[in-house]
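Supplementary Methods, section 5.1.

A reviewer requested that the exact input to the structure prediction be made available. We therefore reproduce it here, unchanged from the version used in the analyses.
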Amino acid sequence: MGAPATGDEGLSCRIDSVDVHAFRLPTDGPDGTEQDGTLEWDSTTLVLVRVHAGGRTGLGYTYGDVSVAAFVESALADVVRGRSAASPPALWELMGRRIRNAGRPGAGAMAVSAVDVALWDLKARLLELPLIRLLPSWHDRVPVYGSGGFTNYSLDRLTDQLGGWVEQGIPRVKLKTSRNPEHDPRRLTAVREAIGDEPEILTDANGALGRKQALYWARRFHEEWDVRWFEEPVSSADIEGLRMLCERGPARLEIAAGEYAYTTRDFVNLVQGRAVDCLQADVTRCGGITGVLETAGLSAAHHLDLSAHCAPAVSAHAFCAVRRLRHLEYFHDHVRFERLLFDGTLTPEGGALRPDPGRPGLGLEVKWPDAERHRVYGTPPA
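The structure derived from this sequence is encoded token-by-token as follows.
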């Protein structure tokens, strides 16, 4: 077998094969669970896609049900197999057509996202470039905020976690709220006392509140604890409710949503509905890196900042290509999982993640021995 193809020779290669895996990792929360305003969970599942061409392998992933892995194999693998590795957006378009009748939003978009990320990673590896250098990057690093603060944490664990991020130089932290709103004043007071006056506090209700209830808490959050960010105070499907909060809430409290936007039209609805002060996008849900690039253009055209939702190992590269970049959610669960599964993950420095210019693609390699005990789908590689 010859040396792997690189450069123009590599881009002329056809994709040889696609393999799909899924791994489920238990949470480390109290009694084995974590909670936010509307959900309780005991594990996180990562669906991993690998694409192979020219002796190189690109990887991508999404966080979702194990059924997304089956979706990739049944609906998408044969779309990319045998095609050129040169143009991920062209294959993104073909995948979107293929899943039209299967359901484009939700699991379909997540499956496309994982494959699209793998295709971009593959192209960068064939060119022997870090992904940030392949993308039309505006930045060389992405500011982060520490995110966790689950509603079933004790006050000690809550303040230790958020205070720990501040000690690491991360100047902004987020906690989950609104599962039991009457408990939030005590939790916010403890956090503010633990981190001091300067770091920024962000909150996330995960759509738990009604419109008037959310307006009441928006005012209290800002006036009493200087909260500047209220994410999904009402359901992200409630465009009118989000717009009401943007218009009637405190001027210095931003309303954010977009993590559950799967298609470009979902983002258009939020923007045209004047429903957010800052838009969010999740690279593992919105169509991968190609989807982020489309959304970045929309946010810039409407003078809205775009914030990255989770998946820090991928988002650190993808969101360097976002002109109106705000920051990246450095989410406790995803940080744990990515460190367990991959070599090459990034650690915040000075409150930001900076992609490694010395590693090709995403800079990630799977730690198969550590991953295997968490496998719930697929076959170990030979």
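The mean pLDDT is 96. These observations are discussed further in the main text.
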